[in-house]
Design goal:
Layout: E1 8-11, H1 21-37, E2 40-45, H2 55-68, E3 77-78, H3 83-95, E4 99-102, H4 106-118, E5 144-147, E6 154-159, E7 163-168, E8 176-178, H5 186-196, E9 201-205, H6 209-222, E10 228-232, E11 235-236, H7 252-257, H8 262-271, H9 284-290, E12 301-302, H10 305-318, H11 321-331, H12 336-350, H13 356-362, H14 376-381, H15 384-398, H16 404-417, H17 422-434, H18 442-459
Parallel strand pairs: 1-2, 2-3, 9-10, 11-12
Antiparallel strand pairs: 4-5, 5-8, 6-7
Helix pairs in contact: 1-9, 3-5, 5-6, 8-10, 11-12, 11-13, 12-18, 15-16, 15-17, 15-18, 16-17, 16-18, 17-18
Bound molecules: glutamic acid.
Glutamic acid (GLU) binds near residues 12, 13, 14, 46 and 208.
């Protein structure tokens, strides 16, 4: 018995802009299903629209996928480079009588559109060259190649997400396969590429559902195997409206720049339209084990930034301290010393931050030598009384072994002796050492900075 064929999936972005989060989710679902089934995940760059496709957009897509960890198998396929092959198929259909040359002039097409408009119908080609002999056309007249599509009955898309979606064939006109300049249309290119790439499952946004019916007509005319389809509902903004610029953060890069981790994004994007019971935290290995096209929701998914923050906080806490320090280093260059301090301070820092950006900000006082510039609130603390406290507690601190416990005991003893609470002593210490009024546990931070550096910072306020 031959082994059943493993699924082959693809992500097929048009490089006309950034990788947006809808596209990223499509890529993720394809990738997950391929990894779940031990199949293949291919990448095809649909760069046939020469005016709108740019190398920057290609780079943004490749970088975005790499950052998300969605590795594709083999080399990316570039659609434009395959135009000759697409043309060949159009000509094959022509030779088989499944397509025909259409010599309708732009003016005739405009008249057809105007007529349809006047009758309140969708603009459609009326099939006037379908059964006409090309010899009736003026010599050398330009022509397009159109598919001789079925005119009666239905084309049914069996969709794993949407169920059976039916299209009346009399509503689908004879689509153009090859333009008069010999370039293939997008519809033809997709079908030929999917066939040549052995694609078994087409999973993409539901804005392509209508295209599926048209693409099926080409597939059937060729007698090619039909892929399984899954059309994903759109992503909506937190307010339930269709996602738009107004909602901000459309590009995957924006999430990286805001300090979200790739593993967070994979979990988050997975939950946009896919569920496994009530599980919210689904690490990637678990997602690969569980993912199935059948569990994709039918209604639009909503962005929820609070969920995103919570997930990111979770994955940050779960991360190794040194790896987390590396993430900070990707945002800003760090000296070896800064990196060592950061890793040592990480247990306290990572409990408090929801993003890598927040983490980097909270840790900024570790990255320099000498007293950090105090913020406004810290400045207020570092006036007369605060400075007097610093001057008073300093000798007690100096006499310790600089361990967190000993530092705390010394500060506490000093506070007790002066009838103060520990907090009153800790406040100016924190302000002088970190430049802030909030920080990870103070005495831990003093130990991280070390005796010498801490003393330099404290002395700056002691006359
Ligand atoms: N290139 C299309 C897009 O970016 C996707 C086509 C497909 O997945 O079939 O929307």
């Amino acid at each position: 018995m031959p082994e059943p064929k493993k699924p082959v999936l693809r992500f097929a972005p048009s490089p006309t802009g950034m990788l947006h989060i809808g596209g990223a989710r499509t890529a993720l679902f394809n990738w997950l299903y391929a990894r779940h089934t031990g199949g293949t995940f291919l990448l095809r760059i649909e760069d046939t629209d020469r005016e709108r496709s740019t190398p920057e957009a290609v780079a943004a897509i490749l970088n975005g996928l790499e950052w998300l960890g969605l590795n594709w198998d083999g080399q990316a396929v570039y659609q434009f480079a395959r135009a000759g092959r697409h043309r060949q198929i159009a000509e094959q259909l022509l030779a088989a009588g499944k397509a025909y040359r259409c010599f309708a002039t732009p003016q005739e097409l405009e008249e057809m559109r105007a007529k349809a408009r006047a009758e309140g119908k969708p603009p459609r080609y009326d099939g006037r060259w379908r059964d006409r002999d090309p010899s009736e056309a003026p010599a050398g007249a330009p022509f397009v190649i159109r598919l001789k599509a079925p005119q009666t009955g239905e084309t049914i898309v069996h969709d794993v997400v949407q169920g059976d979606v039916r299209f009346a064939n009399d509503q689908l006109d004879d689509m153009v396969l090859l333009r008069s300049d010999g370039t293939p249309t997008y519809m033809l290119a997709v079908v030929v590429d999917d066939f040549d790439m052995d694609i078994t499952h087409v999973v993409r946004g539901d804005d392509h559902l209508n295209n599926a019916a048209r693409q099926l007509q080409i597939i059937r005319a060729m007698g090619w195997p039909e892929p399984a389809y899954g059309h994903l509902p759109l992503i909506h903004g937190p307010d339930g409206a269709k996602l738009s610029k107004r909602h901000g953060a459309l590009a995957v890069e924006a999430y990286r720049d805001m300090g979200y981790l790739p593993q967070t994004m994979r979990n988050y994007l997975l939950r946009l339209g896919w569920s496994h019971g009530d599980d919210e935290i689904i690490p990637t290995d678990q997602a690969i084990a569980w993912f199935d096209l059948r569990n994709i929701g039918r209604s639009p998914a909503r962005l929820d930034f609070k969920k995103l923050d919570n997930l990111n906080a979770h994955y940050m806490r779960a991360m190794d301290d040194a790896a987390l320090a590396d993430e900070v280093a990707k945002l800003r260059p760090l000296s070896d010393l800064a990196k060592r301090r950061l890793s040592a301070a990480m247990p306290g820092l990572k409990e408090r931050a929801k993003t890598i950006v927040e983490l980097a900000e909270a840790a900024a006082f570790l990255f320099q030598d000498g007293p950090p510039a105090p913020d406004e609130a810290a400045q207020k603390i570092l006036t007369g009384d605060g400075r007097a406290i610093l001057g008073g507690v300093l000798p007690a601190l100096e006499s310790t072994d600089w361990s967190p416990a000993a530092l705390e005991a010394a500060a506490r003893a000093f506070a007790d002796a002066g009838g103060m609470k520990l907090g009153q002593v800790a406040q100016p210490l924190r302000a002088a050492l970190t430049g802030r009024t909030a920080s990870p546990p103070l005495f831990d931070m003093m130990a991280v900075l070390g005796r010498e550096e801490s003393l330099v910072r404290l002395m700056a306020y002691v006359s």
